[in-house]
Specification:
The protein has 18 helices and no strands. By secondary structure, the protein is an all-alpha fold. Helix 6 packs across helix 17 (352-381). The chain is globular.
Length: 411
């Protein structure tokens, strides 16, 4: 007599097949590696700032503008990559985007002058956006709701891990042979991961929609309520302290605290790695408390406090300033997984790619402005007051965070 026990279902609503969870973890691992490779390219220019500023005479605002070029490129294509992933799936979006990133890296290595370098940084960012838009869909598609917080937290490790790799390798390589040598690392990583993703990524099965549900499942979630708009706005504000530290943390250690470039790069890398682990912790916490927005509010408050403490320690010339920077960096990156999971759950599978693309677009528009704006602010008022300015953004974000979570009916 057949069992009447209901079949376990996946995140997309179909019966759980044997080994599908194992495949989900495998897809997550490849997705993290792919986005890490893309992040190494996007982050690399920020770690050229000390060389560009001290050795080649660029102002912090000019060097910050060059460092923001890949992020500007990402802004231009994130939603387009997300829409393409919604239409054809994640596999070839990720693999193709990484291959194009590798080509742009080769162009940057051969570029003559800062204008040409900036153009290839923009093109590379346009291509690298593919992993940001599509790898989130892999997590939503393969993992059930009660494990999505953990899975998305692991997926969001890719950004600080990529920054860690860039922080440890780029300053040292740039100090010797120069910019071309420093870009060899992202070239190798993006080329290898493009091939790996083309071979091993499997698109998650799409949700089987009940008869008559097609209109509801594909309806624009932005018209239902203000939830997605508010999460996007909050994420934009929380980007400011995150990119202030990732962009200027190294040059602050070198120029203000007089650290050696290698030691400073290692500390920044350690801070980013700790932050990556912290994203997993916040993801697990959101699964345990059954909410994404409550931990998001806690992170926003903590980020504001951490940046204010960092400003105070720098202004007072306390020896603990570097330790505070590690703590502030850890907190500043902790929100991304929470926001991404919340956006994907509200958007549903039919809109997840576009919604995650829009989420990243807003964040990277803000990130593009952080480089030149905070660089100019540091030049005028110094690091402590610039850190205070960055602390104001998470304070503004707190009242914008929705009080309750929301989820699409057909996720």
């Amino acid at each position: 007599m057949p069992s009447k026990t209901p079949a376990k279902t996946t995140a997309i609503g179909s019966p759980q097949r044997a080994g599908s969870l194992t495949r989900a973890w495998w897809m997550l691992g490849i997705g993290v590696a792919a986005q890490t490779a893309g992040t190494v390219f996007v982050s690399a220019p920020a770690f050229l700032i000390p060389m560009l500023h001290q050795e080649r005479g660029l102002s912090l605002a000019q060097a910050g503008l060059l460092a923001a070029a890949p992020t500007l490129g990402m802004v231009l294509t994130l939603i387009l990559w997300g829409a393409l992933a919604d239409r054809i799936g994640e596999k070839w979006v990720i693999a193709g985007g990484l291959a194009l990133t590798a080509l742009a890296t080769m162009g940057a290595m051969a570029a003559q002058g800062y204008v040409g370098l900036g153009i290839f940084f923009i093109l590379g960012g346009m291509a690298a956006a593919s992993t940001n838009a599509a790898s989130g869909r892999v997590v939503v598609g393969w993992f059930p709701k009660d494990r999505r917080g953990l899975a998305m937290g692991i997926r969001q490790m890719a950004q600080p891990l990529g920054v860690t790799v860039a922080a440890v390798t780029v300053p040292t390589l740039a100090a010797g042979p120069g910019i071309a040598a420093a870009l060899a690392v992202p070239l190798v990583l993006t080329a290898v991961l493009a091939v790996a993703c083309g071979i091993w990524i499997v698109n998650p099965p799409r949700q089987a929609k009940p008869v008559g549900s097609a209109v509801v499942a594909t309806a624009n979630p932005y018209r239902r309520n203000s939830f997605l708009w508010r999460i996007h706005a909050v994420s934009i504000l929380l980007v400011v302290p995150q990119f202030t530290l990732s962009t200027f943390g190294l040059v602050w250690l070198v120029t203000a605290l007089h650290w050696d470039a290698l030691a400073a790069g290692i500390l920044v890398g350690v801070a980013q790695f700790v932050g990556a682990v912290g994203r997993i912790g916040t993801g697990i916490l959101s699964d345990r408390v059954g909410s994404r927005v409550r931990p998001l509010r806690w992170v926003a408050v903590a980020a504001a406090i951490a940046m204010l403490v960092l400003a105070a320690t720098d202004a007072a010339h306390w020896g603990a300033a570097a330790v505070v920077m590690v703590i502030a960096t850890t907190i500043s990156v902790a929100d991304n997984g929470l926001a991404f999971t919340s956006v994907a759950e509200m958007a549903g599978t039919a809109w997840a790619g576009r919604a995650l693309g829009a989420q990243n677009t807003g964040q990277f528009i803000a990130a593009s402005a952080v480089g030149p704006a905070i660089g100019a602010l540091i030049g005028v008022v110094g690091y402590p007051l610039a850190f205070v300015a960055a602390a104001l953004c998470p304070l503004v974000a707190v009242p914008l965070i929705p009080r309750a979570d929301a989820e699409h009916d057909h996720l």
